[in-house]
Design goal:
Elements (H helix, E strand, L loop, with lengths): L1 E5 L5 H10 L3 E6 L2 E5 L2 H10 L5 E10 L3 H9 L11 E9 L6 H20 L4 E2 L6 E8 L2 E7 L21 H11 L6 E3 L6 H11 L19 H9 L11 E5 L2 H13 L6 E5 L11 E6 L10 H13 L5 E11 L2 H10 L3 E10 L2 E9 L1
Parallel strand pairs: 5-6, 5-7, 9-10, 9-12, 10-11, 12-13
Antiparallel strand pairs: 1-3, 1-4, 2-3, 4-8, 7-8, 13-15, 14-15
Helix pairs in contact: 1-5, 2-7, 3-4, 5-6, 9-10
Length: about 375
């Protein structure tokens, strides 16, 4: 079975690494996608424990196409009899590249192909429900490559149930988890000096414990014909925690509002025992100890229009970074101003190990992995 996971563009390698840790075989990395080889157990495990993934899909077809007519022909040739006569379906589509049609056109074309194919094979017309379908088919076009897949997740895994407070510039949880994997954090002392709503500390702790991504367990695969509850339970029992958290994870937040929100999120995630949120200014605060790891999403200044002030914050913070990060420690920081931040780190003698660039929403960002 070919399995396709949708990921953060530019950070696919960390989703691939996570999949391998969960015993799913990586075949190929594509733009915002990781192609895997697996079985039903892999579907269960990825949906429940993959923190860097948006959706888990079963790949039905991967074809090079030329226009809507070709898309219709490719989609028509597939077997959709896995959909029960009493079930409804819908087609969703995303498109990347330059085309003479829209993603809505693709969804409509593939939807018609599904109806026609089902009628031919089963002799009955399948029900369409665009609002709340039992089965959701995805038809994504990247350049001239069409991926037709079966959604096993439902609503994306990027939504986290613990998030009772939403910071206005919050980092996507899937990206936060990618940064945790990028840092190679091992449970040692960890700080997020610009913690916002505490997404990074929470994702780090939940990653270490191999906690379920969606505790409610509300997944689309439970409506699909292959679903076996016993097999699901056996697959999920194989997942153990990755490592112990040796010291409390620390987050620092200057804003009273966001500090209060971070506390709410930590409490909602039931992680008060493992995470400490401190209200203070990371540029001036005196810390009793230095940390082996630092992972942070500092302010960008885009929403507020204070780019110059933000760059000054970066400069001041990097100057006192030796009071935060211990010698030989590693840090990951993500920002739209990654080139400027890289220069500041280089000037202070930090070694840049790598920079991952990608999309966070509509913003082009860079995550810098560095060592003191």
């Amino acid at each position: 079975m070919k399995v396709l996971t949708t990921t953060i563009r530019g950070f696919e390698e960390y989703s691939a690494k996570e999949a391998e840790l969960l015993n799913c075989s990586v075949v190929e990395l594509r733009q915002a996608r990781v192609l895997l080889e697996g079985n039903e157990s892999c579907i269960y495990i990825l949906n429940n424990y993959a923190r860097t993934v948006n959706k888990v899909l079963i790949l039905l077809s991967r074809e090079t196409v030329d226009g809507l007519e070709d898309i219709y022909r490719k989609a028509l040739s597939l077997d959709y009899t896995f959909i029960s006569p009493d079930q409804s379906f819908a087609v969703r589509s995303e498109r990347s590249g330059i085309h003479g049609f829209t993603s809505i056109d693709i969804a409509r074309t593939v939807g018609q192909a599904v109806i026609d194919s089902y009628l031919k094979d089963k002799g009955s017309k399948i029900k369409v429900d665009l609002e709340n379908p039992d089965v959701e088919i995805e038809a994504d076009l990247i350049g001239n490559e069409l991926f037709i897949s079966l959604n096993t997740t439902g609503n994306g895994l990027n939504f986290r149930e613990y998030r009772t407070y939403n910071h206005p510039s919050s980092l996507k949880p899937t990206l936060a988890s990618s940064l945790v994997i990028m840092s190679q954090w091992d449970g040692s002392s960890l700080i997020d000096p610009f913690t916002g709503g505490a997404t990074i500390p929470i994702e780090a702790a939940l990653y270490a414990f191999s906690s379920p991504v969606k505790p409610s367990g509300n997944f689309s695969y439970k409506k699909l014909s292959f679903y076996d509850k016993f097999q699901e339970e056996m697959a999920l029992k194989k997942i153990d925690k990755k490592f112990d958290i040796k010291e409390k994870i620390v987050g620092i937040e200057i804003s009273r509002k966001h500090f209060t929100g971070a506390l709410k999120n930590v409490s909602s995630a039931k992680l008060n025992e493992y995470i400490e949120i401190i209200r203070g200014d990371s540029i001036n605060i005196d810390l009793q100890d230095r940390f082996k790891f630092l992972i942070s999403n500092p302010p960008y200044g885009i929403r507020s229009g204070r780019k110059e002030k933000v760059l000054r914050i970066y400069e001041l913070f990097v100057k006192r970074l030796d009071k935060v990060l211990e010698e030989g420690g590693e840090g990951v920081m993500i920002t739209t101003e990654y080139k400027k931040l890289s220069d500041l780190l280089n000037q202070r003698g930090y070694r840049i190990i790598k920079v991952n660039t990608g999309l966070h929403g509509k913003l082009w960002v860079g995550a810098i992995l560095f060592r003191s």
